[in-house]
Every structure is written in C-alpha cells, then in structure tokens.
TrEMBL record:
This is FAD-dependent oxidoreductase domain-containing protein 1. The keyword Oxidoreductase applies. SUPFAM superfamilies: FAD/NAD(P)-binding domain. It comes from the Eukaryota. One of its GO terms (biological process) is mitochondrial respiratory chain complex I assembly. Keywords: Oxidoreductase. The keyword Zinc does not apply. Required for the assembly of the mitochondrial membrane respiratory chain NADH dehydrogenase (Complex I). Involved in mid-late stages of complex I assembly. It comes from Romanomermis culicivorax (Nematode worm).
Length: 303
C-alpha cells in the first residue's frame, strides 16, 4: 500500500462538480484535466479504460440523465501517507501485479481480521499492537414445513435461549435457527459450510415445540449454512479510520446484523473519506478506540 509519489484519480459525473475542479486547476493542483462527453465516450483510449472501471455503466447513467460530462483529474495529495504492506495478487489470465491505492476500506466480512493482519495491524507495538478480532463463525438456517402452523400474523419469534423463527411465504414454511452458546460455538466446525442436522434436532426443535405445540409435527425441508463476520470482542461492528494507518478504514464485524446497517455505514465511510468526518450519522462509538481502551460495546439479546 505504498503511495508516496502517487496521485489521486478522481472521477466526477455531474456538471455542478466542475466548479470544484476549476478551483483545483486554478491552484495548480491538477496534472490532467479533460472533459469527455457521452457522445464521444466510445472514442476513449481502450488502454486507459481501467482508470474508470465500467465505462458502459457511466455512459448509461449519462444517457438516462440527459447527457453530462465525465471529468477525469489527478489531484496532488496534501500530505504523505504511511505505506502499508504491498498487495500482489495472482490474476487468472495475466502475470501478477501490485495493486496500489490511496484509500483502503476493509469490508472483507469474515476475513476482515486476516486483511488487517496483512496491513500489520496486531503485529506491531503501541497502536499497532491491537489486532482486529473478526473471524468467520458458521451459523445454520433451517427451512421447516408445519401443516398446522401459525398464519400470516405470526410475529418474529425470538426465544431467550437464542432460538428464532419466522414465517416464510404462504406454503406453511418457516425458517429458524439459533445463536449458539459459547460452548455450542466451540463445538461447531467453522472451516466448512456443512449443515449439522443433529444441532436442529437437539437444540432448536424442542424449544420450538415447547413454544408452539404444532411444531411437533414439523418436517425439515431444507437448510443452509453461512459465515458471520463475528467480532469476538463485543459482537458489534468496527467502523471508521484506523488510528495509525490514516488511509485504512474498517467496515466489518457486524456479527450477523450487517444487512441492517450496510447502506448507512457505506454512506458514513464515504463521508469520512471525502469530507473528513461523519455528517449525518455519527459512528465514532464503533471505532478502533474501544479495542485499544478495552471498552466493549455490549448489547443484549443479539441473534
């Protein structure tokens, strides 16, 4: 992640953003300043297309909005950013190459802890001594059929044991699962996505049947397993800028509730990168600091 002597590539699509680029240009901060209109986008040099990613997507957006200007510019950074470990992936159809960038967002889900270690986080001293405690944790979801099950007005059932269940569709189908206890979690093989049906028979079915006697007649129709990006520290996400690597951002560790937060957290990370701080929603309590200060952000009844 060494970026000394590099420059930042910015892509802007709307006309109203030209004023900001003009200001950069007047200050001598731009190396390249070129306008590309939608009617000539296909003439763009194919060798430079990787700079803008999916060029057809950009062109489609312009067409739907009645035309516009795509502006490419290189802007000098105001400061030198500390270098991190270099990433050199093996491509399938070409030789290995090094990937460099100015900003890194670690949204690697269950493997976010591994990515952080690649950047030296958790292997140094001082601020760098604190690891990212995010690991893959397997969870099961079972699909069951209950002939005389509850109707459409069935609420989302969450039992104090961690067992949960809700209706799925109109065919008397229900999906259910369980947040395992610490002892149960240690017995699960988190390296595979194999489903343990005995876990359902022993840990889930008896509780469902006690809650709703009609579930004694259930039949398991299907099941699957998936990985949570599980934060061992407090089961809550780690969001924001690392306090040593100022160009390294975290957005992981949601421990099963990432879908609920994805849109707003993405917006918050974008604001932190481009505006230097959170504007609409403050995520500071989810930052790295609580790890360094050993201050867990605990929440009851997470499933």
């Amino acid at each position: 992640m060494r970026i000394t002597d590099e420059k930042l590539l910015t892509v802007m699509i709307h006309r109203e953003l030209m004023a900001e680029l003009n200001e950069w240009k007047a200050k001598g901060e731009l190396d390249i300043y070129t306008d590309f209109r939608s009617d000539c986008i296909e003439k763009f040099d194919k060798n430079r297309r990787p700079l803008i990613g999916n060029i057809n997507l950009l062109e489609d957006r312009l067409d739907r909005k009645g035309g516009g200007v795509i502006i490419f510019a290189k802007k000098h950074l105001k400061r030198e950013i500390k270098s991190l470990a270099k990433v050199q992936p093996q491509m399938t159809d070409t030789s290995p190459r090094r990937i460099q960038a100015h900003v890194y967002v670690n949204a690697a889900g269950p493997w976010a802890g591994d990515v952080a270690r690649m950047a030296g986080i958790g292997s140094g001293s001082g601020l760098m001594s604190v690891p990212i405690p995010i690991v893959p944790r397997k969870r099961y979801v079972y699909v069951v059929h209950v002939p005389d099950g509850p109707g459409l007005d069935m609420p989302f059932l969450i039992d104090p044991s961690g067992v949960w269940c809700r209706r799925e569709g109109l065919g008397n189908l229900y999906i259910c699962g369980k947040s395992p206890t610490k002892d149960e979690d240690e017995m699960i093989d988190h390296d595979t996505l194999d489903v343990d049906y005995d876990y359902f028979d022993e840990k889930i079915w008896p509780i469902l049947a006690a809650r709703m006697p009609c579930f004694e007649k259930l039949r398991v129709k299907n099941a699957w397993a998936g990985w949570y990006d599980f934060n061992l520290f407090d089961q809550n996400p780690i969001i924001g800028r690392h306090f040593h690597h100022q160009n390294f951002f975290m957005s992981a560790g949601f421990s099963g509730h990432g879908l609920q937060h994805a849109l707003t957290v993405g917006r918050g990370i974008m604001q932190e990168i481009y505006d230097g701080g959170y504007i609409h929603i403050n995520y500071r309590k989810y930052g790295f600091e609580r790890l360094y200060e050993n201050r867990p952000l605990l929440e009851d009844n997470i499933i």
